[in-house]
Write a structure and sequence with these properties.
This protein has ten helices and twelve strands. The protein has 446 residues and is of the alpha+beta class. The protein has two domains: 152 residues, Up-down Bundle (Four Helix Bundle (Hemerythrin (Met), subunit A)), CATH 1.20.120; 226 residues, paralog of FGE (formylglycine-generating enzyme) (Alpha-Beta Complex), CATH 3.90.1580. The chain has a four-stranded mixed β-sheet. A three-stranded antiparallel β-sheet has the order 1-4-12, with helices on one face. Strands 5-6-7 form a three-stranded antiparallel β-sheet, with no helix packed on it. Strand 5 and strand 6 form a beta hairpin.
């Protein structure tokens, strides 16, 4: 409720602008603090190494987020360039596949840190001169929100790289996990036939979340919780990786080519006990937590084995953010920004929590854990919504549309709250396993 409606004094425009600037500074600062804290313990040799062909050298990501910030928070808004624009080509993620970035003449760790510091100081000083309106970049603080989200997304990428590192101590020790407040029943929820509004018109929403549009859905059932490690083990023990009939044709080829037998990072100890390799350390399995590091093909095969299917992304968003009367929420629980009571977000736990740990995060239909813990694969290919317009650049979304990518929803434990909402759409190749992805199943009702 606004101050005017509640009987208080109306805020002056300069007060609103000041509050918005403070919020922007807080989000930009939070992202940079996460970036630097993850990299600080590592020697330069680890920062410049290529730990996996699937990921960039860590120092490339650091300089990339600084260059992205310079492009959008300085040059795009009319400020004088800080450095020669040749860095734009060097740190262009679309131009250079991750496996090739080790061969680029990258900035050294010291140079990248200095560049990031200098850009940030200039960007914050320039922010003080800006108004939040007048063009599409400034409206609602969009471009600053885009940059804050972008860096938080790269923090998640850094965590994925650290998880793949061998021979280096990532200095990340997982804390104790919360205990679910009540006993968990791994059942499903029925969502009735609905005409729902999907997408977002929020100030910081990305182009692929826009525009708002309506979709009519037939009734369906969806798992109340994401599939747990214990449930996935049952699939494995029933020969899930040996039964070709369960697999998509391309998925079966991947099983045979990579000799897949279990999720990435699952390992048995000397006694034959299952655990996971968590940032370089063997860690006991948390059987009631959501399974992660499975590709789309593994999720699809499990769903077939269970006599179900993966939800469409429209079904996923309806179960997460629709209400029985056809309304919509920004988050499953409502409009309040995510807190530690709502979801496992922000990276503190370094892994998924036991399902049912966050009762305050329930959707209107009683579906749990829709945000946080693991990204959830859907059955949907990544296509634009009706009326889509690329903004502010084609390479964020438009160039990826098509059948090569599958949509993921909901964020993971590594995702920062500023970078996730019920409408947020992620996408990746269906073979990807290094991302923090799991799934839940659905089926037609009746």
């Amino acid at each position: 409720m606004s101050a005017a409606r509640s009987g208080g004094a109306r805020r002056r425009p300069e007060e609103d602008a000041g509050a918005r600037r403070a919020a922007i500074v807080a989000q930009l600062s939070a992202a940079r603090a996460r970036t630097l804290s993850l990299l600080a313990p590592l020697p330069d040799e680890a920062l410049v190494a290529q730990h996996s062909p699937l990921m960039s050298p860590l120092v490339w990501d650091l300089a990339h987020v600084a260059n992205y910030e310079e492009q959008w928070l300085l040059r795009a808004l009319g400020a004088t360039p800080l450095v020669d624009a040749t860095l734009d080509a060097l740190y262009d993620a679309f131009r250079h596949p991750r496996a090739s970035r080790i061969h680029l003449p990258m900035l050294s760790p010291a140079q990248a840190r200095r560049y990031a510091k200098d850009v940030r100081e200039r960007a914050l000083a320039y922010l003080e001169t800006q108004r939040f309106g007048g063009d599409v970049l400034r409206e609602g603080g969009f471009v600053w929100g885009m940059v804050a989200q972008h860096e938080q997304q790269h923090v998640e990428t850094l965590l994925a790289t650290l998880a793949l590192m061998r021979g280096w101590d990532a200095h990340l020790a997982a804390p104790a996990l919360p205990e679910p407040p009540v006993a968990v029943v791994l059942d499903e929820v029925e969502v009735p036939a609905l005409t729902v509004t999907l997408g977002s018109d929020a100030a910081w929403a990305y182009d692929n979340e826009r525009p708002l549009h309506t979709v009519s859905l037939r009734p369906f059932c969806i798992d109340r919780y994401p599939v747990t490690c214990a449930q996935y083990l049952a699939f494995m023990e029933d020969g899930g990786y040996a039964r070709e009939a369960l697999w998509h044709r391309d998925g079966w080829a991947e099983v045979e080519r990579e000799r897949l037998e279990h999720p990435l990072f699952w390992e048995r100890d000397a006694r034959g006990v299952w655990g996971v390799r968590l940032f370089g350390r063997w860690t006991p399995m948390v059987w009631d937590a959501a399974v992660q590091h499975v590709c789309w093909y593994e999720a699809d095969a499990y769903a077939r084995w269970a006599g179900k299917r993966l939800p469409t992304e429209a079904e996923w968003e309806a179960a997460a953010c629709a209400t029985p009367d056809g309304g919509r929420r920004t988050y499953p629980w409502g409009e309040e920004a995510a807190t530690r009571a709502h979801a496992n977000l922000g990276g503190d736990l370094l892994r998924p929590a036991p399902v049912g740990s966050y009762r305050a995060g329930a959707s209107a239909f009683g579906v749990m854990g829709m945000l946080g813990d693991v990204w959830e694969w859907t059955s949907s290919d990544f296509f634009p919504y009706p009326g889509f317009t690329a903004f502010p650049y084609r390479e964020y979304s438009e160039v990826f549309f098509g059948t090569s990518y599958k949509v993921l929803r909901g964020g993971a434990w590594a995702t920062h709250p500023v970078a996730i909402r019920g409408s947020f759409r992620n996408w990746d190749f269906p073979v990807r396993r290094q991302i923090f992805a799991g799934f839940r199943c659905a089926r037609d009702a009746g």
